[in-house]
What we know:
Oligomer: heterodimer
Helix content of chain A: over 70%
Strand content of chain B: under 5%
Structural class of chain B: mainly alpha
Shape of chain B: elongated
Number of helices of chain A: 12
Amino acid sequence: MRYTVKKLTAFLFTMVVVSLLTFIAFDLISGDPAQAMLGTEATPEKLAALREQLGLNQPLLVRYGQWLAGFFTGNLGTSYNYNLPVGQLIAPKLGLTLCLSFLAFALTVIVSIPLSMWSARRAGGRADALFTALNQFFMAVPPFFTGLLFTWVFSLTLGWFVHGKFPGFDQDVPGSLWYLLFPAMALALPRIAMTVRMLRSTILSEMNKDYVRTAISRGNDWNMVLRRHVLKNSLVPVVTFLAQTMAEIVAGSIVVEQVFAVPGLGRLLMASISNRDYPVVQVIVVILALWVVLAGTLADVINRRIDPRLNLGGDAQ
Amino acid sequence: MKKRMNRSPYLTAGLILTGVMAALILLGFFWTPYDPTAISGSAKFSAPSFAHLMGTDNFGRDIFSRVLKGAGTTAVIALSTVLLGGGVGVLVGALTGYFGGIVDEVLMRLNDALNAFPSVLLALVIVSVLGSGKYNVIIALAIVFVPSFARVSRTAFAALRDANYVKSARLMGASPLRILAVQILPNTLHVLLPAFTIGFNNAVLAEASMSYLGIGVKPPDASLGYMLSESQSMLSAAPWYALCTGMTIVLLIFGVGLIGEGMNRQNKGVG
């Protein structure tokens, strides 16, 4: 209980710092939005009226407080560019990006756990050295390059999906999922390589421990020991690692959405940055950061469940 | 650090690959087979051949020459980023790790908050504040990389703060600065150097992502990421453009990654 409270406090504190930093940064660069919105039609009276309407003549901290409250009430300001409420603009895109990230994350977990168990069993041989080198290679392949390759092979050559024609979830759910599978694979590939490397070395160091030798000497089957004992004991650092993976996937999705022309949060973010549409940018930045912090906090909580020893003090390391 | 007799094969392979890439990049600063910006109407979209090792693009520009120049831009940005961000990060980490106290607490909490931003996202925000272009990318990425270097070196310096040889140096009246630089720093290199290789790779990736997204380097500078975004529009007419540019990024990261992996393995003594 005390732990949950402590984690919750740390979580809230981080989010306040993150949102405050973001708010101040964009407040500094956006200059005078009223001037920007009115452009050449600006007269001193109109400017003053619009500033009043937008609440710009209030002190920074008051405006920050109002903005922060907007995350709960849904009133996050108005996009300069689309003249729409920011919340309304972001909501559908957020779902799409979450879907893409979860797909990539699921792929990473599903592929890397059996693969690392397989390679840990064969550690030390020639095949293993080759596998490790290959793994190192895939860690070096950036998702946007894989994305270009996938577009070339699966779209332009094989015609499995039409690049740039994302059907949209309101039109065609299976078709949309199929389309998202390709960017998800591009995102997952280097992540799988990194997770395998990490999990493999954790399993290997765990397999040298006494309890494994005892279990084997008692006549247990290798695979059983691996699945039942070793994997469970290797999970704590892996869960922490997977939380970072989630963060990297979210960041990677900004770029990969651009490669595959998926109309998600990343694409909106890039468009808003180039249009200087800061009300949209700052909300997206905070949402993505929230996602990362949430994943980290969740990992800590899950680790407590996996390894009750952590309850005796200290954090998972 | 004592030199070991048997060097990790990863380290050897990495040094060779990185050496070749570095030699090509250096060559590209002084000489390229063609002018990377020379337009040729007769040689549009020609496939790789002996005349054009990596083929040509929609303007008939020689891609190999462009890749040499682009890799140079990317490498210079990544190196400056790592030296700047890593230098500041190690300094902060060394001071906070050695002295501890309230400054340490405050800086580490700030570190946690900065860590909440995925690295590319934070760089995006900073570049949208500063504006795009080569130098702003370096500044943005350097800021982004300070926390991770600070964290790594803080742990390393704090671990050696009370080592016997540090205590004896203190007794002999060595100044804190001398202790940090002469006594502790050399003994943290086995941790810091791999961190620098990872930092370099992250910088290459981040620069390439940002330039791909159009908020990185601006023409006339052309980095590998910028070229990759260019290549996307001619993916069916000149697939070799994307392939060669992308593979150059991969080999650059792969080589330096192998060096880092090799150093880590030697530290653990696994070879």
